[in-house]
Task: inverse folding
């Protein structure tokens, strides 16, 4: 089997192009044509992305698509608020006109998928321009246990624009880094456990993981049907709300939740255990965030606790069993001649170990390949335990304290990139929502030693309107108090 890897780009960590520190691109407006905006973003990608490596596959038809949408606008045919807006799409979401590789060389030489994923069809129907595909942690960071977020054999290594020698997080690394670097205001990420909210927090952008099932799962390279979902990654909460409106089919206009900042009728829980204490600087920033939420009128119910989110073994059992089944179902949709099973992918990696396995192994793939299906008593028991740990933990805390939502620190500040030993994550707040299949929103809350950190807001199933309302109020209060979020300087962190 032949394959094509992306050309390796030489990156100088000290290079400072003239416009790097000029701030993010200007926002979309009715006076800026789609063609002009696409040209501006393509220029920004050419200038900056050699440092960040966020966009793995540019769309050569983006300008043609933009011109068509400009013509529609000139003729009075406006499809919606995002008409003509460029959007970057994570490279594990099917696009019929561009490769979908999940970062793996095993899919790099395969034809593009026969159809767009339903969520991409919704983007195009709303008038969005697919600007390109973004790099990710290969196979959404579920191949080997010592992986480094942001690395894939196909796309190379994505770096954090705020600190080029620090992680962009994962697995939606390219989407988060691209928005932070001003390569697009709107991007699509996917999450199983932290893969949207982690890179959102580390790159200082907004990331929203919706309730599982709210956005169609079809056409997304899977890990777990019980936990996988796509969601928005944007500069602002209102932009995330607008993109979620499109991704969910337009039945709910989530931007309506961004109309005000008065939280006087809202009760917010603060579960200190087990979600605090792993980063002193992050805790201090989050305490400041609580003050701002209180100033917006919210009632804070502090010093609560969530149960520990179950053992790692139960979580791994669920993901392993579902990966084997779901991956085979997905691969069956791709062109004949390519891999069809997890065993095929494992064998490919062995044959191309010098590229695929150069930094970490595939023991998670091998574990999943050895599972015995979704009727296995081991899987059934683990899935039930995971559901109870996630849903009961969140719902019971909300009900017992009459809460609308929970807030907590998001992720520890970006850790140093270490391709040899893998990620060094001090802590996070994504597991309860992941196990439950419930929504989770990360919004920038401040900086620790120059590195962005975030606040996560969570709730019960389909509580996205509430989460967006709280995040918008907090975002507004933080900007009033502290000014705009700092823009990246594309330098090494020292």
Result:
């Amino acid at each position: 089997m032949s394959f094509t890897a992306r050309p390796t780009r030489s990156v100088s960590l000290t290079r400072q192009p003239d416009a790097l520190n000029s701030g993010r691109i200007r926002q979309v407006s009715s006076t800026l044509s789609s063609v002009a905006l696409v040209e501006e973003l393509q220029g920004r990608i050419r200038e900056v992305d050699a440092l960040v490596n966020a966009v793995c596959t540019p769309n050569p038809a983006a300008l043609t698509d933009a011109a068509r949408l400009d013509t529609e606008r000139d003729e009075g045919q406006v499809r919606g608020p995002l008409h003509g807006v460029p959007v970057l799409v994570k490279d594990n979401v099917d696009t019929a006109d561009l490769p979908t590789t999940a970062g793996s060389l095993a899919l790099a030489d395969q034809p593009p998928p026969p159809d767009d994923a339903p969520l991409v069809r919704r983007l195009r129907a709303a008038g969005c321009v697919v600007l390109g595909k973004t790099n990710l942690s290969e196979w959404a960071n579920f191949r080997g246990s010592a992986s480094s977020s942001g690395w894939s054999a196909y796309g190379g290594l994505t770096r954090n624009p705020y600190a080029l020698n620090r992680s962009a997080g994962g697995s939606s690394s390219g989407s988060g880094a691209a928005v932070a670097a001003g390569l697009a205001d709107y991007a699509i990420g996917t999450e199983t456990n932290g893969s949207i909210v982690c890179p959102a927090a580390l790159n200082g952008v907004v990331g929203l993981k919706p309730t599982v099932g709210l956005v169609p799962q079809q056409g997304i390279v899977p890990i777990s049907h019980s936990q996988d979902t796509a969601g928005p990654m944007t500069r602002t909460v209102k932009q995330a709300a607008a993109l979620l409106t499109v991704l969910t089919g337009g039945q709910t206009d989530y931007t309506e939740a961004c109309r005000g900042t008065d939280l006087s009728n809202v009760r917010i829980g603060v579960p200190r255990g087990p979600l605090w204490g792993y980063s002193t600087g992050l805790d201090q920033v989050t305490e400041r965030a609580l003050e701002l939420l209180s100033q917006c009128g919210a009632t804070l119910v502090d010093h609560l606790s969530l149960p520990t989110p179950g053992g790692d073994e139960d979580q791994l059992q669920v993901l392993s069993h579902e990966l084997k089944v779901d991956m085979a179902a997905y691969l069956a949709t791709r062109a004949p001649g390519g891999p069809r099973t997890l065993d095929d992918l494992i064998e490919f990696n062995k044959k191309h170990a010098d590229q695929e396995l150069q930094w970490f192994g595939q023991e998670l793939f091998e574990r999943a390949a050895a599972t015995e299906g979704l009727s296995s008593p081991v899987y059934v028991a683990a899935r039930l335990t995971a559901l109870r740990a996630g849903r009961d933990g969140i719902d019971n805390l909300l009900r017992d304290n009459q809460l609308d939502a929970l807030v907590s620190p998001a992720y520890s500040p970006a850790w140093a990139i270490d391709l040899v030993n893998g990620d060094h994550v001090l802590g996070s707040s994504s597991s309860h929502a992941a196990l439950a299949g419930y929504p989770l929103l990360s919004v920038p809350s401040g900086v620790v030693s120059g590195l962005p950190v975030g606040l996560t807001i969570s709730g019960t199933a389909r509580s996205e309107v509430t989460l967006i309302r709280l995040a918008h109020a907090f975002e507004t209060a933080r900007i009033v108090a502290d000014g705009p979020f700092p823009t990246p300087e594309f330098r090494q962190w020292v």
Observations:
- The chain has one domain: 34-482.
- Residues 1-29 have pLDDT under 50 and may be disordered.
